[in-house]
Automatic annotation (TrEMBL):
PANTHER family: ATP-BINDING CASSETTE SUB-FAMILY B, ATP-BINDING CASSETTE SUB-FAMILY B MEMBER 6. Belongs to the ABC transporter superfamily. Drug exporter-2 (TC 3.A.1.117) family. Its EC number is 7.6.2.2. The chain crosses the membrane at residues 39-67, 73-92, 148-171, 177-194, 263-286. Residues 351-556 form the ABC transporter domain. This is Multidrug resistance-like ATP-binding protein MdlB. Residues 40-320 form the ABC transmembrane type-1 domain.
Length: 559
């Protein structure tokens, strides 16, 4: 029978946790990781030299009292000044990582990496997150993780490495005083171990609450028009206030639990350093130590007591940074959907589903599709008809490869879509959703997203074919009118026609229409239907709809 593994000691757990946090930090630094290593090495060296400079107080005061020795005193003063000067230069150069703009470059590069990750990650995974949560991660968590990194590292090293170097240097002048100063460090370790687990848990809970509040606030703001129309803004704001109250309670609990360790640590550190002074005074009274040593100890205690006593507060910030790092690392670790080899580009555009089975990650016990098979012929319209929840939209999402099915295959022109790069697959399809998303940009720019290299004449031709010219010309600045967030300056039918113009400009061989007229009035539906008739000409069309008018031209239907 094999022996059970020995449990890890607290020291081993701390080393593993520190190593993990360090590796996460270097991971998000990317190409700037070597510069960060140099920065922190410079701060460590500066802290060591600062401690050695402070240790020079011992021989300096010994040279001045009781009988001044000018030569020795000037020598030690010069040594202290030189060490302090070099420490200042090293610290200044190290902090150039922040002040020189490199930290801003790091946060910019990290946001670009996160943005690229959002672009390449499966859309089904992205749909599992709320918009406010992504906003908190891309803006708040990046700032929490990096903005104060160098400043906090400098404070922590000043509170730990400098006193340790000082205590070791004092050993060379007086073993007893050096040993007493070193005895304070195990006390700091015990206090750190005492408060860290609970505080780490509190910080993660607080971070999660911030995320939920961000998501609730964005959701409430975006839905305020609908809520007012339904006279429900009061009910939803009550839910929002409940989230804020939960956040307040967590903040209060975190502050309450953080105060006691901070006060206890500060008190015990100051008592420990005071004990060194008392012991030194006793040795002077008994004639075993020179009076100058007591003066040196008092200078050192005054210099070190505050940074060492506030060390707990600095480590609190580290816990917040580590929680932010975990979220960023988790997002960056989501893999893109794999592209199988050999990669191929189809030259035919019929679509085939063969024995496709799929369930959503948040509902693994309920199949959205089970053994679904269908052939959607090229250059024809196929309608997917059924009640809500029957899997129609899931079929469209799988074709667009928002996710991969757990079983079965989907092919275009006989080629499995898993053998197509995202760029190739996206180029094959234009999509018109029921809920159109337009950007806070001009009409021209919103349509041009279908084909960024299109000139103005091509954009205008697509808009004309999509029945857009009449309302575009009525806008205040015409084609240069900004449409507002999600295109809220336009009606539902107008937004839908802009979306169709975008699809016309793209001119992809496969068109997916996801209930494009479901929420429109009769007049808007007629205009949109005319635009759709132009869009689907000579295309492979998959239409998801409830209205018979939308699927009147379909050559095949799946129920």
């Amino acid at each position: 029978m094999s022996a059970l593994p020995r449990p890890l000691s607290p020291f081993s757990k701390m080393l593993i946790s520190t190593r993990t946090a360090w590796s996460r930090l270097l991971g998000v630094m990317g190409a700037h990781a070597p510069a960060l290593r140099r920065c922190l090495a410079g701060l460590v060296a500066a802290a060591v030299l600062q401690g050695l400079a402070l240790a020079c107080v011992f021989p300096l005061l010994a040279a001045l009292f009781p009988a001044p020795d000018q030569g020795r005193a000037l020598g030690w003063l010069a040594a202290m000044t030189l060490l302090a000067g070099i420490a200042t230069v090293l610290r200044w150069r190290a902090q150039g990582f922040e002040y020189g703009g490199r930290l801003a470059q790091v946060t910019h590069a990290l946001r670009l990496r996160l943005g690229e990750q959002l672009r390449r990650m499966p859309l089904e995974r992205l749909r599992e997150s709320r918009a406010g949560e992504m906003n908190a991660l891309l803006l708040g968590n990046v700032d929490e993780q990096l903005n104060y990194l160098v400043a906090i590292a400098n404070l922590i090293l000043t509170a730990t490495v400098a006193p340790l170097a000082l205590a070791l240097a004092v050993l060379a002048f007086d073993l007893r005083l050096g040993a007493l100063l070193l005895a304070v460090f195990p006390l700091l370790w015990v206090l750190h171990r005492w408060r860290r687990p609970a505080f780490a848990r509190d910080m993660r809970g607080l971070n999660d609450a911030h995320w939920r509040c961000n998501a609730d606030l964005v959701e409430y703001t975006q839905g305020l028009t609908a809520l007012r129309a339904a006279c429900q803004e009061g009910g939803r704001v009550g839910m929002l206030h409940a989230g804020f109250e939960r956040l307040r309670q967590l903040q209060t609990a975190a502050h309450r639990q953080g105060v006691r360790p901070s006060v206890v640590t500060a008190s015990l550190v100051e008592l420990g350093l005071l004990g060194v002074v008392v012991a030194a005074t006793g040795w002077v009274v008994s004639g075993r130590l020179q009076p100058a040593a007591v003066a040196a100890v008092m200078v050192i205690v005054v210099r070190l007591s505050e940074p060492m006593a506030t060390l707990v507060s600095y480590t609190m910030v580290l816990e917040m940074m580590e929680a932010a790092l975990e979220r960023i690392e988790a997002l960056l670790a989501i893999p893109a959907l794999p592209v199988q080899m050999p990669q191929a580009v189809p030259d035919q555009f019929d679509v085939r589903f063969e024995q496709v089975c799929f369930h959503y990650a948040d509902n693994p016990d309920s199949a959205a599709l089970m053994n679904f098979s269908a052939t959607l012929p090229a250059q024809a319209m196929t309608a997917l008809v059924g009640s809500s929840g029957s899997g129609k939209t899931t079929v469209a999402r799988l074709l667009l490869r928002h996710a991969d099915p757990q079983a079965g295959s989907i092919t275009i022109g006989g080629i499995d879509i898993r053998c197509m790069s995202p760029e190739v697959l996206n180029a094959l399809m234009s999509v018109v959703f029921q809920d159109v998303h337009l950007f806070d940009d001009t009409v021209l720019a919103n349509i041009r997203m279908g084909r960024p290299d299109a000139d103005d004449a091509q954009v205008r031709a697509a808009a004309a074919a999509a029945q857009c010219l009449d309302f575009i010309e009525r806008l205040p600045q015409g084609w240069n009118t900004r449409l507002g967030e999600i295109g809220d300056r336009l009606s539902g039918g107008e937004r839908q026609r802009i979306s169709i113009a975008r699809a016309l400009l793209k001119n992809a061989p496969i068109v997916v229409l996801d209930e494009p007229t479901a929420a429109l009035d009769t007049e808007s539906e007629l205009a949109v239907q005319r635009a759709i008739d132009t869009l689907v000409r000579d295309k492979t069309v998959i239409v998801i709809a409830h209205r018979l008018s939308t699927i009147a031209g379909a050559t095949a239907s799946w129920w």
